[in-house]
Specification:
about 180 residues; mainly beta; 11-stranded antiparallel β-sheet; two-stranded antiparallel ribbon; 2 helices
Length: about 180
């Protein structure tokens, strides 16, 4: 387990150090999730929920905090990280039991054993691109306060009929959007 965690930490650090950043928007015509921004909150990805981020006071005092009010990502070539500048980064993974798309807490590469960190694929187009995962398509399920939780449709997981599949449209960003996501 230690070697896996160490590899994950270096992988995430590499992603954010040499990153091409991008934001994500859902595409599902004639639905309540069409053109919703993918956001980070409570170590999970969401639609129609505000981004939750943090920047320490000493970094704020230097004027070095990204805005933190939007969510973006880095990578998309088999692995995926959050678009942050926190040392060590934050890696995106899929909960193998539920299919929920989550990310590590700041300063930790700890990912539950068996969860999925690979299979991410960012394809670039002329105006925009798409993010996909080889383990399944994206699904959003209704949650409280009109938010939708983001999942990957793993074969071993059964989803409620209220959940909707969607495509994740990627648009380039020029820099990390947050110090860290919470």
């Amino acid at each position: 387990m230690k070697s896996f965690t160490t590899v994950a930490a270096f992988n995430t650090l590499f992603l954010t150090a040499s990153a091409q950043y991008f934001g994500l928007i859902s595409s599902r015509s004639a639905s309540p999730i069409h053109y919703q921004t993918v956001s980070a909150s409570n170590q999970s990805l969401w639609l129609n929920k505000p981004t939750a981020s943090y920047c320490p006071d000493n970094i704020k005092d230097l004027g070095a905090c990204p805005s933190g009010n939007t969510t973006n990502f880095a990578g998309g070539d088999n692995s995926l990280g959050m678009g942050t500048v926190v040392p060590g980064g934050q890696q995106v993974y899929i909960d193998a039991e539920t299919g929920a798309v989550k990310y590590t807490i700041a300063h930790s590469a700890a990912i539950p054993e068996g969860d999925i960190v690979t299979g991410w694929n960012l394809t670039e187009g002329e105006s925009f691109g798409y993010l996909a995962n080889e383990h399944g398509g994206f699904i959003a399920c209704p949650a409280e306060d009109d938010a939708w939780k983001v999942f990957v449709a793993l074969e071993c997981v059964e989803f409620d009929d209220a959940c909707l599949g969607f495509s994740a449209i990627a648009s380039n960003s020029t820099q990390a959007a947050a110090w860290q996501y919470t």
